[in-house]
Amino acid sequence: MAALKSALILGASGLVGQNLLRLLLLDPRYETVTCLLRRPLAQQNYQDPQNKLRPVVINFAALDDYQGYFSVDHVYCCLGTTLKKAGDLKTFRKVDFEYVHVAAQLARAQRAGGFVWISSVGANAASNNYYLKVKGELENAIMRMPQLPNAAAVRPGVLIGERANDDRPLERFSAGLLQLLKPLLVGPLKKYRAVYPHQVAREMMRHQVF
Fold first, then answer.
1. Whether 169 and 145 share a structural domain
2. Residues identified as active-site
3. Name one Pfam family in it (predicted).
4. What is the pLDDT at residue 61?
């Protein structure tokens, strides 16, 4: 029988992170699931029959101070924001590039068995779109990092789902439109389909080595 695994999630309060946490807590292959969070987790929203959950509230601006938590089998990074929510380009880059890049460095330093993070369909360091440019630069930085085993970027399209206290009418409209166009998005265009958060979460788990 294979040994049980330990997991670490960064960004468990987002759409994908919430779904990923629920899946990991119910997955018999995991013994512990640690979450690094900006604010306390509403544990009543999760089923944790095996008492696996280990929530830790931290300051992400000082992520290096929490490197010991990265000594796990699998690191899942769901950190991310939008340009609108960030308010300016510098803040957006800090969350979507710097925090994730530091997390990957800590996973490498602590010899984590795998590092999976959320990128975006269309990520390209040469893009004229700042969002996609940052995502592409991050992919390049992490994938070129030596001695980081099983690093993988998941590239979802527009997410389908409601975010609490987060008004994104354009994103909701885009998701609805892409759902209507789904029959036409085949072949090379399939990657642009709108996806549900639980699908992204399962794809992240698929990249980890058990």
1. no
2. 131, 135
3. Epimerase
4. 95
